[in-house]
Amino acid sequence: MRCMGGKAIFLIHIRTSSEVEHAHTVVYSFRLESSADNQHLPSRFSFLSSLILDQKFISIQMGQPETEAAVTGISRPQREEKDMHADNETQTHLDELGLGYPEVTWYKHAGLRRLYLMMPILFLGSTINGYDGSLLNGLQTMVPWQDYFGHPSGSTLGLFTAIQNIGSVGALFFSSYCADLFGRRIGVEIGLVILFVGTIIQVAGNVTRGMYIGGRFLVGFGSNISQGSAPLLIIELAHPQHRGTVTTMYNTLWYLGSIIAAWTVFGTIQYTTDAAWKIPVALQALMPVIQFVGIWLLPESPRWLCSKNREDEAFDILVKYHANGDRNDRFVQAEFAEIEQTIRLEKQNSNNDWAVFLRTRGNRKRLLLIALTSFFSQCSGNGLVSYYLHDILQSVGITTSHDQSVINGGLQIWSFLVAVGFSALLVDKFGRKKLFMIAGVGMLVTFSIWTGCSAVYAQTGNKGAGGAVIAMIFLFYGVAGFAWPGLTVAYCAEILPYNIRAKGLAIGFGLTASASVFNQYVNPIGLKHLEWKFYFVYIAILVIECLCIWFLFVETKGPSLEEIARLFDGDEAMVGGLETMDEEERMAVKSGKAAVHEEVA
Q1: Which domains does the chain have, with CATH numbers?
Q2: 560-597 burial string, b = 16+ CB within 10 Å, else e?
């Protein structure tokens, strides 16, 4: 081990004679002789992995007074302030070898294979949101929809578009309570019921403008309550090795919903009756029905169960899915110990009201990153295409509904493929911060070219410039896919400790929806009065975005979900501790009668 000093978790054998009597999971403060290799462990699991993979065990021999080792709490090694800045990437030999956790190939592991094959049920939450969020973009290309609602434009069109996100903002103070009080699965169900009601209102009978707007409000409200629980269940069920990929995959499925919406509209655009737009709207309820029934195939979050003093159930779930039913699996025992002890500490020492986000430096940093991530996810120029592609295409001479629908559908497929291929599959290879940076710089370059081509077309009518705008839109979404939307939810969820994770994610969704509302009101007005010149606003935002990512964003690749707290809170992080151990165990080791040595099996 290459650490000058610090603390780490061990699975130990307790000896009172030459025979091993029993095993314990404890945490030791240690000191090594060499100072040349003073590097930091990326997480307690990393050290544990090296022991397991190297076939080594840590033993304690009782009755050795010369030892100076003592249990002092579950913690990371001490970190200097400079190590808390920049990207916080851990640079240990274990990381370089990929031994951050015991290597597991999920499709060869029966428990994980069963778990991950059920995950698409939870991914539907993002797909539903993508369908709902993109549907209006396609409906605007339909003559029957335009005629039925009187060709809305300007602020009226802004209200039609924004009301769903206004509903999402309204769910801010409810979604976290549903997730924390009733469980992650029940939280999803509550949101889906509200979404059903909103869908029915939009298509039942003679729909008025007020009914349509009210229905969209409920769809947004219900969707965000559901989304306030689904990603939590994903991140809290995933094996630590696969956390980044699985949680990032969640929000990339937003594009799958937008693909379905785009091509559903394309399939009904030939109709001349109200069925042209009512069929796509009614289909908003199809995926929620599947999720409503299927979610009970998944287990509840082990972390939520621990928070409700149901530790046995939590351990059983970890054993079943992370250890193939082996209750003696060392990794799962350590994983459970960390989860259970951390949540116990948080319950004992935390005040979990909303003001908790302002009380500590670490939480203020978390809140800032959530706000920036939420804002940039909607206000980087992507909001123009998401809701006003019709107006953009009109501005470069593409005016027919057929052509606009084909471009819209193709763009959604392209965006989905690059989001899955780049962000979800590369997140654990490149890390979060690098992907954010690639996306930010790439979007800045392509959006600037897009703006220039739009200016040329507006001033000269050059068809080549108009075609270049379409090409730049596709390239823009190609580079955006490195981070957005995949990391929007995954990053916000993993930087939060359990006790404020539901509230923090609710804030993230609320701020994302608020940024969308701003977009949806401002964009049509800006496009109408400034035309292509309005794009300079987003160029300025993209410059700020790149600077914020470089100087403020924290890399979370490597540590376990609980251990990430150290990157924000340092030694004040509530990550287990001596006080979580039995009194007999504490006193035995604190008495100074233990000697620590390595024994090769």
Answers
A1: 5-106+578-600 (no CATH), 109-298+350-552 (1.20.1250.20)
A2: bbbbbbbbbbbeebbbbbbebbeeeebebbeeebbebe
